[in-house]
Write a structure and sequence with these properties.
By secondary structure, the protein is α/β, with parallel strands linked by helices. Helix content is 41%, strand content 17%. The strands form four sheets. A seven-stranded parallel β-sheet has the order 3-2-1-4-5-6-11, sandwiched between helices. Strands 7-10 form a two-stranded parallel sheet. α5 packs parallel to α6 (147-165). It binds nicotinamide-adenine-dinucleotide (NAD) and uridine-diphosphate-N-acetylglucosamine. Nicotinamide-adenine-dinucleotide is lined by residues 6-7, 9-13, 31-36, 58-60, 80-84, 99, 103, 122, 124, 176, 179.
Amino acid sequence: MNILLTGGLGFIGSHTAVVLAQQGHQVVILDNLCNSQMEVLANLESITGKKLRFYEADIREGLALRKILSDNQIEAVMHFAGLKSVAESAQDPLKYYDNNVCGTINLIEAMQAEKINKFIFSSSATVYGVPQYLPYDEDHPLEPINTYGKTKLQVEEILQDLVKSDPSWSVVALRYFNPVGAHESGLIGESPKGVPNNLMPYICQVASGKLPHLNIFGDDYETKDGTGERDYIHVMDLAEGHVAALNFVNQHPGFHAINLGTGVSYSVYDLIGAFEQAANSMIVRKVQPRRSGDLAIYYAKADKAKNLLGWQAKRDLQVMCKSGWNFHKQKS
Ligand code: NAD
Ligand code: UD1
């Protein structure tokens, strides 16, 4: 199929591009480079041995979008483009609503005009908010506690209304848990600008000596060892989940929200331990007060993905840490 990946040079989009191209799909990438670099394209071509079509464009540019969709006879869109910092979304909410919500409306309007109705959306476990029970299943109440999460929920609601108004649309909202790791080549991975917010990229920078120590945000949670627990998922598993979702949207009109997680939670200490083994180095750490807005623990019920998509995560914490570290070493 001819597939457009918005935000396809970013962390998750680039790994998905690899899997799609290797399965024989025609991958077209659109990205405005606000959080990615052109060199990712060359690395994608070197991994896949294929030339990928790339457009430096913004999802808020309606006419450009329509031309890209029609020139490439696009049949389905995977929509990764978005801003994802919880802290920044609190400081600059309009930027987040504009990019994530208005940008998505613009994109689906262009699709509608070009009569393309297969859509896979990058949603997030953040839409659930404070757990009322665990694991989160897809029917858990949706009460995001930050602006970033609200933008994801708003888009899901817009997509549901769209499907109600025109049942020929086929939409899957994939609610990702905590993506980590990198492609085994070490050529693509997660490279946040500035000081990382997320745990795995921060640990990598401590291991390489770029940062002096890891701050552990709280060791007094009601979890197995007092630190926060999360459902970390290898980005290549996530990428394969998108291919499974593509096969699904081809046959199932309607709106479907599906968790992509492993169903297992690991603590900060678990991740540090696995990383130390994978990188064969000690991670200096200091316990700090809890980070505001953090939840103690959450993880996915992953059954719906298994039942509907025939997909489940395969890679373990060791592989996540090894591949993440391998990418970081090669890059620095
Ligand atoms: P990323 O920042 O690495 O990739 C997003 C890409 O989109 C970047 O290359 C960026 O340049 C591009 N982009 C942003 N706004 C754009 C716009 N207006 N027009 C064109 N391109 C634009 O992020 P990621 O980690 O790959 O995340 C991909 C998607 O998944 C995002 O929508 C994010 O909110 C969602 N998500 C990510 C996580 C995570 O932990 N990484 C978790 C849940 C959901
Ligand atoms: C964060 C976002 C979430 C987003 C997710 C993407 C917040 C409040 N939430 O989630 O919306 O979907 O990233 O992956 O920002 N930790 C440390 N030290 C660090 C960094 C993190 O101890 O330097 C701890 C955190 O307290 C948490 C765990 O590690 O317990 C994971 O943190 P992180 O990687 O930032 O992910 P989330 O908090 O789950």
